[in-house]
Structure formats: C-alpha cells, structure tokens
Amino acid sequence: MSRITLSHYLIQQQREDRICAELRFLVEVVARAVKAIGNAVGKGGLTNSLGEAGGENVQGEVQKKLDVIANDILLEANEWGGHLAAMASEEMDLPHQIPNRYPKGEFLLLFDPLDGSSNIDVNISVGTIFSVLRCPEQASATAEIGEEAFLQAGSQQLVAGYAVYGAATQLVLTVGNGVQAFTVDRETGSFVLTSESMRVPEDTKEYAINASNARWWEAPVQRYIGELVAGKSGAREKDFNMRWVGSMVADVHRILTRGGIFMYPKDTKDPTKPGKLRLMYEANPMAMIIEQAGGAATTGYQRILDVQPELLHQRVPVILGSKNEVERVTAYHQG
C-alpha cells in the first residue's frame, strides 16, 4: 500500500475544491520551512544556536537564538513564492512586506516561529504555529499592507497548523476538512500522513495549567480546578491528572492525541494583560485545529474564533480541548 504524502493529500483537497492551487503551494512552502526549522532545532548545541539572542521581541520577551533563526527561515522561504500579500510574526512589531522584486499573492501568513522556546535549552519539544487568511481586496490594492488587513476573526482562517519538533518532526494541519497529522520520513525527507481525521475525546481525566499562577486565578477557574484537585472525594467523583509542559504546541498535541483540557486563563497577575497567549499567532490557529477535531476553544467568556481582533499582538485567555470539560469551565465563567 502506497503511503500518502503531504503533497498527495493537498492535491486531493484541491481536486475536491477545498483549497486552490495557490493555497496548496503556500502550505507546501511552509512545510519545507518547517523541515528546515526542525533540522536547526535538532542540531541543538552543535551549531551554537542555543541560548539567548541578546534582544527582545515586541512583547518584551527575551529572544532565543533559535527564535530568530526560525523567524528568518519562515520569512525567506515564503516571501518569494508569489502567494502572499504580507506576513506577520509574533517576533516582529509590524507586518513583513513582500519585497518589490517578488510577485504578490492574495493571502496573509501569520506565525509563531518557535513556540515554547524557553524549553529549547533543556531539549523539550517546541514547535511552530501558523495560519492563513485571505487579504482584503482594499488592502491588497495598497503599496504596503497594514496591520488592519490581519485583524480578522479566527473564523476567517483558511488554513491552520502547527509543527512539533520532538522525537519526530510532525506537521498537524487543517484546511477546514478535519485534522490530519504528517510525520517527516527521515529517509526520504517527505511528510507522510500518519494520523487521519484526528478527534479529541469529549471527556478526559487530564488537565494542563500553570498551577504556580493559582493565587491570581479568577473565581470560576479556582472553582473548576478545585473540583479536579478534589478528585474522587469531590463533586466530580473521579481523579484527574495534571500535565504541563510549558510549550503550547506540546501540550495541545498531547490533548489532540489523547484528550485533555489546556488552560491559560485570565488572571489578576497583570491587570494590563487580559491573557498570556496571542490571539493571532497561537489562540486562533489552535482553536481552529481543536474545533475541527471535535473539541472546543473559548476565552471563558466567548468562542475564541469569534473574537474580533483589535491589535496584531493582542493577548487573550485560552481554554481548549475536550468539549465537555471546556463547556463546563466556560459555564462557570458565565454563571
């Protein structure tokens, strides 16, 4: 039986009119960039690419060398293909314009080039998150694509995906027709379909949350986590296990594979920040993937994909994963 490669899968989606040829080419370019990033991550200390880069990103976070390397790989791979009007990255303050020497396309690419980079130096799985939007016609007619072109609700995403760099390099992808996972065959260099039509179980006994922030959680989260911690002796009458990697890609990949709930809720630690995670680069792509796999994703107060962005680097609370658990904690916020 022949194996299904990423290109094979995308061609089939194109034939079924789920994506156009330009979008197929764009996803294939992103996939090639992902393989290059995976190689860079895999070499670790062999290439002096670990440690801090000596600067900060737009959120004031210290950049790792591999943050910068991954960002550059994605920019360079995608700017010349003719499929994009512009790009936006968590690591850059403003949208990245396509150089005049290259043709422009009708899509916008957004990405977190290396999610979980604080784990790089200790050899824990990290990843890349990305999504694709259509560039508004009025914006594409201008010489420079501004921030406002990207400020579209997550429900407008055409493609969402992430790569996880671990024991194997995997690419998890949705084009709005379920969720598929592809794994790099190290002998051929091809992405091969290894998990088809992935589903998040509706019920779970695992949760992922940074418990060190417990004293700042709002009352609905305190209530929900309190029930989980109480286990069989509490209202839920069953025991739960906590899992927390500190890399969103790794935590969400585990949930997508075997169920669970991931939470980075709103808290009172810094009143100026309504959440920790970025709507455009992390929350929206992951929410689309999780919903396509039968799960749910909310801020606690509304569906993530319905949030109307106001800023390119906007932060939001994130609660996603197994549907019944997400709906329970969301109901606590609204009760």
Provide a descriptive summary of the structure in words:
With 335 residues, the chain is α+β, with helices and mostly antiparallel strands. It is 30% helix and 23% strand. It has 8 helices and 17 strands. The strands form 4 sheets. Strands 4-3-5-6-7-8-9-10 form an 8-stranded mixed beta sheet, with helices on both faces. It has a 5-stranded mixed beta sheet with strand order 12-11-13-17-15, with helices on both faces. It is globular. The model has no long low-confidence stretch (mean pLDDT 92).
Can you give the helix content as a percent range? 25-40%
Trace the largest sheet across and list its strands. Answer: 4-3-5-6-7-8-9-10
Number of strands: 17
Secondary-structure element string: HHEEHEEEEHEEEEEHEHEEHEEEH
Characterize the biggest β-sheet: 8 strands, mixed
Q: Would you identify the regions where 5 or more consecutive residues have pLDDT less than 50?
A: none
Q: Can you give the mean pLDDT?
A: 92
In whole angstroms, the N-to-C terminal distance is 53 Å
Can you count the helices?
8
Q: Which structural class fits the helix and strand makeup?
A: alpha+beta
Q: Judging from the principal axes of the Cα atoms, what is the shape?
A: globular
Radius of gyration over all CA atoms, rounded:
19 Å
Describe the oligomeric state of these chains in a short phrase: single chain
Instruction: Tell me the β content.
Output: 15-25%
